Amino acid sequence: MRPHLRDLPIPQLPAALADAGLERPAWWAQTLAVRMHRHGATSWEDLEIGRRTRTLLEARFRFGPLLEHVGERVAEDKTRKDLWRLGSGEIIETVLLRNKVGRTLCLSSQAGCGLGCTFCATGRIGLMRNMTAGEITESIVRTQDVSGHRVSDIVFMGQGEPLQNYDAVMTASGNVNHEHGMCLSRKRITVSTVGLIPQIRRFTEEERIWRLHLSLHSAIQETREQLMPIAKSNPLPELLDAMRAFQQRSGRRWITFQYVAIPGVNMDSAHIDALERELAGINYILNVIPWNETGVGYRAPTWAEVKRFTTALRRLECPVKIRYSGGKQEGMGCGQLSAEQVEVAASGGHLLAPPGIFTS
Ligand code: SAH
Ligand code: SF4
Hints:
The longest helix has 15 residues, at 133-147. It is built from 13 helices and 12 strands. With 360 residues, the chain is α/β, with parallel strands linked by helices. Bound molecules: S-adenosyl-L-homocysteine (SAH) and iron/sulfur cluster. Iron/sulfur cluster (SF4) binds at residues 113, 115-117, 120, 122-123, 160-161, 194. Iron/sulfur cluster binds at residues 113, 115-117, 120, 122-123, 160-161, 194.
């Protein structure tokens, strides 16, 4: 099958366009990249090119929309979730959150996720397929289009484990960062991983410049295994070694560990002791995410429990942040993505839209 123009890394566009027979391929590469990634072109017509150029391009490449907008929901706090159907029928989500300086888009990298973390709704539906680089970047420009807001930051914290779809996520991030792409600073691109050691090492060796957050959730191996089955084959000591190597090689002063706080599982003093012991010598920020309800037998912490926990964490002498999950009452919070997907499957492919909530 001909490659889709949006799937190509921008640095490879000039050679690909020269091969297709275009004169001035470098100029065309810049023009097409800007139109696709910055202006949000999703059809040949949107690219505004002459007939001869289009004929040459069409002989080698596909172009056109990769996603269909099938639903949107806006929460009381203005967080919005959009549902997108991929060409092969699966539905993925984007969540747009307002922050102090702009708007952060929480992106999916896979339809579903195959890693089955016991506290995560996405993990329950299993992996349907990896998204392509083009689908990922289109989900950004299309969200900008339907919301009327420019995205200032992207985080791979929607459906899926981004490091399991390594190449597509790296290509998409590169195009988002590229001066002829979306031109977003590398500091505004964050990849979150459950902790896949070989891929963290690869990320480090390839000197990838995006932020990398580790979903730690516990510094006790048994608890990690209970929460994340993949922890069995990615044991804590080697995982922390890989993160230390990443910090050293990338020259980052701080790295971020995410910690989903679940009462009765990982908020007691034994877990705080383990953090103190295992993370000694690492300069880290602890990002505490109060667990969001996904109906799987855990209990969401009360605000008082979260405060007690973060107060107890003071003895670690590391910066502690509490993540506010936008729209969690409306099912848009961290780990809640995919609820609709289950409904879609149960209804034989039709989206069951709660009346009055979805508007398209
Ligand atoms: N697969 C990647 C990125 C997607 S999940 C990862 O696991 O890191 C993004 C973040 O949401 C992760 O830190 C994940 O642990 C967290 N998360 C998953 N389910 C959650 C829930 N129910 N409540 C709060 N955070 C959750
Ligand atoms: Fe997948 Fe991340 Fe959810 Fe685990 S927490 S199931 S890795 S999306």
